[in-house]
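User: Fold both of these, please.

Assistant: Here is the first one.
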Amino acid sequence: MKKDTFTFHNGVKIPSIGFGTWQIPNEEAYDSVTMALKNGYTHIDTALAYKNEENVGKAIREFDTPREDIFITSKLPAEIKGYDETLEAFNETITNLGVDYLDLYLIHAPWPWSEIGKDCTEGNIQSWKAMEKLYNDGKIKAIGVSNFEIKNLQPILDECDIVPMANQIPFYIGKDQEELLSFCKDHDIVVEAYSPLATGQVLDMPELKEMAEKYDVTVAQLAIRYCLEKDTLPLPKSTHESRIIENKQLDFEISDEDVKILQQIRDVRD
């Protein structure tokens, strides 16, 4: 790929494609992460809420690669808000993974999943301050958020010391979130694109199949490459080795003209 890494505003580098583990059960996570590592992935994304940190960590520890060569992300559960609660959850994650530090730790969402849209501003600020402490103590190399809109990010910028280094959001062909992307770029926040295949729903779109044939790639490769063309960091996931391999084979570029065409596609899930 043309771009091997993104760089956070604190200088820490993150591999430009990650292996996502959302919806991979704990019993399958060991094999899936091992396959990803075997096939060149050095960036693994998990979360306490995924309930698979134990086997994600086991796969990383047992693979013949130094810890410092693997970038590990995990997340504070969306329903946990508060300073002490965040420190406790972080310790649980570190214990689950069996590691001494995280490369990136994110607030999973600005509100509990059972109360989407709830105003948790003060709780998010307190959680962020706890993450700043963990960062300053050297237990995390970078800190960020996930699913945060501009209205959720602004209080962090106003009330806290450290600007988030990353914002992990749903991003795929049909869901560009241009205003949020622009805001993050203005504040030097790296945008990570989760669900780059719209949980598989872009794969059957005729116009994408036609364009993928033009580049002699799969629709999945086209969709993941599109995220990179939009300067976002994709996090594809699979439990099938052939697709794990395919999702990382992105040594092509989408022309500016075709990127503009893809930008016009409406959200397949609307």
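And the second sequence with its predicted structure:
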Amino acid sequence: MSLIKNFTEILSHPTSIFALIAVIIFILFWAKVKNVKFTTQLVTQIGIALALATILKIFRIYHLPQGGSVTLGSMVPILLMALLYGPEVGFITGFLYGIITLILDPYILHPIQVIFDYPLPFMALGIAGYFRNRKIVGTFLAILGRFICHFISGVIFFGSFAPKGMSPAIYSLTLNGIFIAVEGAICIAIMIVLPVKHLETIINKKMISN
């Protein structure tokens, strides 16, 4: 009975709920990526993708006061890794990029907020890897996954920044929606012109030759 009472008490606090969700996601993440074979080529490609994403983020177009940036397509290298190597590699690359972003551009209010604003949203970009034959659909859903993470963080942890009379949900939707929409549009435009299939063919040939 006390166990049920304790569980009910935990669920009555939004922060506790999302902490539990984060733990479940990280457990699933570990289960998905633990069997990835880290060849020299793969490690090199991840390193290059992280370097490109970081450079693109540094030369950002706009930086929001409470964190978040509109960049010149900094999500594209992570999306490419997911499309070329599969979702697991996309999750790993996104996670590492989230940590790099936290180091370079931190905005910290709460440990759970950090998780939902840094590693989780960029891990979500790995979703594109489930749609390797439909790169635009995959890109859109991956960016939507990132938006959901930022939206949750905005509602729970940034609601106090909302103007008087505006609900935290509307504030988060507006703030995160605008910058993710612009950032996402830039990335989708880039992905449209990128020859992903051609790049995949080149990578497969190299893997066979090795």
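The first helix runs from residue 2 to 11.
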